[in-house]
Amino acid sequence: MLTANNLRDYIMSGLTCDHVEVQGDDGQHFEAVIVSQQFAGKNKIQQHQLVYLALGDRMRSEIHALAMRTFTPQAWARPATK
Asked: Which domain holds residue 47?
């Protein structure tokens, strides 16, 4: 069964991240906060597509649902965004 820690490791291995938090305890439904400089200049859809690309086929096979909040390091540093 996939764990939140597994998913965190998958994201971090496929995407350069400053910060990743993943929660979820049923093995299929997860929530993630992801901070990456690679998100700079991209809209939310493009940011999420980068995460999906990092996860590859796992999004079709292991992960049923992933809710994401994505931030650049600059946006993450602003207190109102958290």
From this structure: 4-81
User: Strands 19-23 and 29-35: what pairing?
Assistant: antiparallel
The model carries a pTM of: 0.90
Contacts of 46-51 spanning 24+ positions with Cβ under 8 A: 50/15, 51/11, 51/15
Report the CATH number that the domain containing residue 19 is assigned in CATH.
3.30.300.90
Looking at this protein, which amino acid is placed at residue 33?
V
User: How many C-beta atoms surround the C-beta of residue 4 within 10 A?
Assistant: 16
pLDDT above 90 (res 78): no
Quickly tell me which residue has 């938090």 as its tokens.
21
Q: Alpha carbon 10 to chain centroid distance?
A: 9
Q: What is the pLDDT of residues 19-48, one digit of tens each?
A: 999 999 788 899 999 999 999 999 999 999
